[in-house]
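User: Could you walk me through two proteins back to back? I'd like the raw sequence and the structure tokens for each, with a short line separating them so I can tell where one ends and the next begins.

Assistant: Of course. Protein one, sequence then structure:
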Amino acid sequence: YTQVRHYQMSNSTSMKIQGLQELKNELKQFAPRVQKNILTSSLRAEASNVQKTAKKLVPKNSGNLKKSIKVKKRRTKNKNSIYFSVGLSFGKTAKNDGWYGRLVEFGTSKTKAQPFFRPAFDTLKTTGLQNIQKKMKQNIDKNRYKNNISGNVL
């Protein structure tokens, strides 16, 4: 069971990936560390797709908000879960401070909303699972070749 969450500022949107029994069985032939690497790179690729789409949709005034959209791998209490978030970097330590992103996304009393995170997630929500499956198959095949493990090419 793997969990992917795409975050949208204050409101969160999550996607749980369950099943995928065929890929799950294929992963069992690898060491736990390799299994985790396969899953991590597959999920990071899809989180990056959400990031790229959000960057395309963000209103461009200075470019600062666009540059502040980041993908981060988060720690979880459950060692069997992999968790990525796509969000804005902000604060004193952020190179590009996107603190005002939620004001752009949701609007204010004086400005209308210009959503970019929600549409990015919505456009990829239907293809996201297929993209993750495809990337997992590629990673499994690459690691099978790398580790000289025979088996069916998915």
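----
Protein two, same layout:
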Amino acid sequence: HLLPLAALGGALLETASPEMAQVLAYWRSLFKGDVLPDRRDLDPVQIPKLLPGIILIDIHRDPYRFRFRLIGERMVAYHGRNLAGFWMDGAFPHFNETATRGNIIGVAKNHMISYRNGPPLMTYQKTFVEIERIFLSCRNGGDLVELLLTFTICR
């Protein structure tokens, strides 16, 4: 679900995990007024317990493509390899046909948040049946959304 930033008021759905709420609270603490956080503002020292589930995704436009910048160790285990530096459509040939691509574009274009709790859209292993994940928009030195701070829990 794409959610407008203002509609959140700093909170997620009641069903969201405490870790998801912590990631959102950290991200919101980085705002300067109404200005989205910048990549330079992200400080892993402030969220050490959350790092294993973090993925940073670079957003390239015209056409939209997405590259893994950083992958937390839990997510490396989930994917079976460290995908840092890989384009998402290169790492996963079916990526462009998934709803995930549309979610990322929606976040980038509309400065929205994408929160999802349910069956995985892109399955790599069958040791879990549900994911909870959030895409949070960030700048990368400019005014546009050029980076996603992503957090995922696999159950």
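Residues 75 and 81 are 9 Å apart (CA to CA).

Let me know if you want the two compared in more detail.
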